[in-house]
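Why should sequence recovery work at all? Because a backbone constrains its sequence more than one might expect. Tight turns favour small or flexible residues, buried strands favour hydrophobic ones, and helices have their own preferences. The token representation captures these environments compactly. In the example below, the structure is given first.
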């Protein structure tokens, strides 16, 4: 006959394990890891030439790790975690299946699924950034991560547009249809830097470029206003703001 005390101990150990996992996934360490992976994927790997000669494989591998790490931030919110995990799973399956299914239509849907997963992770982070509470290091790191994800997402928008309307972009440096070039153009547009070596020449690509430039400026404006408001409110003696820690 099973010992009730043993069952209680098992339940307690299982509960403790779940709490530990939740605290680990939602900790600042996980957010720092996610932000670090984004920096490595977007900037470090292309700059060091780590995407060659196995560029696509390394990018798909790093993107998978980044996406899993980003979705894990929503661990404490059950419904959001389940939904985001489902979308991310579809995106990852399609990304790796594209190694065997090499058709233009499937590649297009792969990019659409990737864009949806990036947008979802942005939503997960934004829900934490703009909620009430004091301004913490974790909140600032999340804000930076969202800014990088915006550049990532718009890069996939450009690739989708170029697949739907070939010749949407013109470059003075020759062919530029790789992940590195799309990221370069996206962040140059997001920051309104615009060197002019890659130019949108079709209506859809021009609209996307304008949309990204506005997004980059409006996000920073709204973010700074929100963080300043939260900081000022936290100074009030009767403030009901609670710490995010």
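From this structural description, the recovered sequence reads:
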């Amino acid at each position: 006959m099973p010992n009730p005390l043993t069952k209680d101990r098992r339940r307690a150990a299982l509960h403790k394990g779940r709490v530990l996992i939740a605290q680990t996934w939602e900790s600042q360490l996980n957010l720092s890891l996610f932000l670090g992976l984004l920096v490595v994927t977007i900037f470090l790997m292309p700059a060091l030439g780590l995407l060659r000669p196995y560029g696509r494989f390394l990018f798909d591998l790093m993107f998978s790790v980044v996406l899993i790490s980003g979705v894990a931030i929503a661990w404490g919110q059950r419904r959001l975690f389940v939904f985001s995990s489902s979308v991310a799973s579809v995106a990852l399956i399609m990304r790796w299946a594209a190694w065997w299914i090499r058709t233009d239509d499937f590649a297009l849907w792969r990019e659409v699924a990737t864009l949806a997963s990036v947008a979802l992770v942005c939503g997960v982070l934004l829900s934490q950034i703009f909620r009430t509470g004091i301004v913490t290091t974790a909140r600032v790191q999340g804000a930076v991560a969202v800014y990088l994800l915006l550049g990532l997402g718009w890069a996939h928008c450009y690739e989708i547009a170029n697949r739907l309307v070939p010749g949407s972009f013109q470059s003075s440096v020759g062919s530029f249809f790789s992940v590195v070039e799309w990221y370069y153009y996206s962040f140059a547009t997001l920051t309104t830097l615009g060197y002019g070596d890659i130019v949108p020449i079709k209506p859809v690509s021009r609209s996307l470029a304008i949309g990204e430039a506005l997004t980059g400026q409006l996000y920073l404006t709204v973010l700074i206003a929100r963080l300043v408001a939260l900081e000022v409110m936290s100074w009030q003696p009767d403030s009901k703001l609670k710490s995010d820690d």
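A few observations help interpret the result. The beta strands are 169-171, 198-200.
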